[in-house]
Each structure stands twice: as structure tokens, then as C-alpha cells.
Amino acid sequence: MKHKLARLEPRSNTNDKSVPTIYVITPTYYRPVQKAELTRMCHTFLLVPNLHWIVIEDAKSNSKLVTDLLNNCGVVYTLLKEETPPEQKLGEKDKNWSKPRGVHQRNTGLFWLRDVFRGLPPNQIEGVIYFADDDNTYSLEVFEEMRYTQKVSVWPVGLVGGLMVEKPKVSNNKVTGWDVSWAPNRPFALDMAGFAVNVKHFLSKPKAKFAYHVKRGYQETEFLKHLVTLEELESIAENRVLVWHTRTEKVDLRLEQK
Ligand code: UDP
Ligand code: MN
Fold first, then answer.
1. Phi/psi class of residue 172: alpha, beta or left (left: φ > 0; alpha: ψ in -120 to 50)?
2. How many CA atoms lie within 13 A of 147 on its CB side?
3. Ligand 1 center to 1 CA (angstroms)
4. Does residue 98 register a pLDDT over 80?
5. Ligand 1 binding pocket includes 191 (Cβ within 6 Å)
6. What's the rounded mean pLDDT across residues 140-156?
């Protein structure tokens, strides 16, 4: 239905407003697999009630590819752009972890949200923010679990950090630390895909944003330290894996030239 409506009445809001909105922030950049990644996401998000997809292209201007894809998808969306400064941009030969990826774009998404809600009365502010990279794999349940986040919720993430699963350590429903192997001493040792933030709570912390120069693996910590303490975290989907940090193989196009 949503997909059909998008074609008949472009930009109609087909969201089910009886449940809180999930604002999904997705940085994306051009490469051969981009359309495949975004198509997969579109089809997942079509099945999630009340989701607003904020897509930020890492580019000087928005591309026809992404513009058309979002227009035809049927998910309520906002398309923005923010180019990573050239000196911070990951080169062909750089190790993928050597520079932050998607950081400027996530902040652009956050700034957009602050703008949209500026000056609105508290009873008109609702929803949850989730950072969803374009190559991960998302179950429908993860969205239902995060929807009622009060401040910041956290949950396990599959296929990340050299493990099958990285997860919060939870005792009596309280987060006490992190069950991870790589850099376990990080204050918030979790992946971007493993937490969600309540919009009202986010707006009440004007300093909350991503930092541009941080130690490898500290991006999440840099953001979350503005928002919560460990004790305040809400553990959801305990002992379940509802999102996977999958990574798409670089495609072999050697024969294109031929
Ligand atoms: N990304 C981007 N510009 C870049 C590299 C990555 O906007 O130059 C986006 C990418 O599309 C993804 C997010 O940033 O949504 C994280 O990148 P990636 O998945 O490559 O990171 P990793 O999985 O290695 O952490
Ligand atoms: Mn990724």
C-alpha cells in the first residue's frame, strides 16, 4: 500500500501516527552497490509502522539515483546532503577504520531534527532516533523494541567486533558493562546499530552530537556521554540478536572495461 501510494500521491504521509515515530538516520555514499543497499533498506522500512527515514548523501549535491529511489520507495523520508571534507574522506587504499565514516552526515541528520522541533510545545515532540548504516541487516522486531525508549536503549548487535555478538552486560535489567572483546574499556562499548535515543531527551541535551576527531571505536561514546550514564541505559531485546553489522563485499567489476 505504502509503495503504491508513493506513486499515486507523491510525498503523502502514510505513517501510522498511533505509535511513536522512529527517525532513522542513514549516511550513504555513491559506489556500485549503493542502489542495492538502499533498495534492501527501503523494503525493510516499508514494513515498519511510523518510520521517517532521514537519508544524508555524502556528496556535494543530491544524486538522481537516491532521489528517484526514495521517491518511489513509499517510506516517509527526508533527503539531505553533507559532503565529508576531502582530508577526512576515506581513500581507496585506506583501511576502512582509519577515518570515521558517516560522521558528518549523522550530525547533519541530528541538526535537521533539532531544527524541525525547535519551538514546538513538548506535547508535540515524540519519537526515537536510530542510526542505521546502509549496509547492515535489520529485523522488523528491532524497531518495535526501540519504539518506547525513554532516554537511551541498548541491545545486542550481531557480527561485529570480531565476535558473533557484542552485547551489553545486564543484571536485573540494569546495564553493568559490555560483553565485548575489542576495546572493552570504552565507556559505551557498543556499535552504532546497538542503541536508540528518545527525541525529547536528545533535544534536552543541546551538546549531543558526534565529534570529528576521536580515537577508533569511540564515536558512540563521544555521542552518548552527553546523553546518559551507564546506570540510566535501558536494556531491550536481551539475549536476542535483532540487527547485524553485515558488510557488503567490494564488487568485482574487472570485466566492465572489456
Ligand atoms: N559512509 C559515507 N561516506 C563514506 C563512507 C561511508 O557516507 O565515505 C556511510 C556508509 O554508507 C554507511 C556509514 O557511513 O551508511 C558507515 O560506513 P561503513 O558501513 O563503510 O562503515 P563500517 O561498516 O566499516 O563501520
Ligand atoms: Mn557498515
1. left
2. 17
3. 31
4. no
5. no
6. 98
Return d(Cα 201, Cα 190) in angstroms, integer.
20
| Grid coordinates given for 12 | 503523502
Could you list the beta-strand ranges (E) of the chain: 22-28, 51-57, 76-81, 128-131, 137-138, 152-154, 157-160, 163-171, 174-179, 195-198, 234-235, 243-244
User: What is the reported pTM?
Assistant: 0.97
Q: Identify which of 42, 36, 109 has the alpha carbon closest to the alpha carbon of residue 74.
A: 42
Q: Among 24, 26, 29, 108, which is best to mutate for testing ligand 1, by the most ligand atoms less than 8 A from CB?
A: 29
Q: Is 222 part of the annotated catalytic residue set?
A: no
Q: Identify the three-state secondary structure at position 45.
A: helix
- Pick the atom of ligand 1 nearest to 102's CA: 14
Provide the mean pLDDT of the chain.
95
Cβ of 57 closer than 6 Å to ligand 1, yes or no, is no
Q: Is the CB of 5 under 6 A from ligand 1?
A: no
Lowest mean pLDDT among 165-169, 178-182, 210-214, 242-246: 210-214
Number of the ligand 1 atom closest to the C-alpha atom of 192: 25
pLDDT tens profile 39-57: 999 999 999 999 999 999 9
Nearest by Cα to 235 from 146, 139, 152, 153: 153
For residue 6, report the distance from its CA to the centre of ligand 1, in Å: 28
**Cβ of residue 82 lying under 6 Å from some atom of ligand 1:** no
Closest CA to 47 of 10, 15, 72: 15
